[in-house]
Amino acid sequence: MPSTTAHSHARVRTTARTRTRARVAIAAVALTAATVGAPAAYASLDSEQPVARQSTTAPARGQAYVETRLFFGTERPDGGPDVTDKQFMKFIDREVTPDFPDGLTVQDGRGQWRDAGGRIERERSYELILLYPAKQAPSRDAKIEEIREDYKRAYGQESVARLDERTRADF
After folding, report:
1. pLDDT for 21-59, tens place per residue?
2. From residue 161, how far is each of 30, 53, 102, 128, 151 by CA, in Å?
3. pTM for the whole thing?
4. In angstroms, rounded to a whole number, what is the distance separating the alpha carbons of residues 169 and 132?
């Protein structure tokens, strides 16, 4: 028969293990509840859904918009002269402004990319930012693709990169 002290120590170890297991189980339940209740992000250009589900305490600001960014290189693969600021702004005035008269942003940049021949090309570039209501995305898509094709054709470019993101905007 074990001594009272040995029996008491065994019960303390068992009770300590039980409490530790209970704490781990409670922590796991809390973590699961926090994960299940966490906001879920999603993006889709074909719906009016917001970018992320908002909590009930934070009001959603603005309306659903799409931000499209186009990246234009200035060096010509055929070795011709680089596209100048004057040429680029004339292109914007002629090809972009008529379809996006409400506003746009042009930023100067420096970029690099791997060309069709596998070479890393570094060049001066422009970033065009267009912002338009999400419900107009289907009709704006064709116009944006036309801008990309017109630039490639006019300046002998291999590509014009495009990035679309859903966002909310308020003016």
Report:
1. 444 344 443 433 443 444 444 444 455 555 555 556 767
2. 44, 29, 22, 10, 11
3. 0.65
4. 9
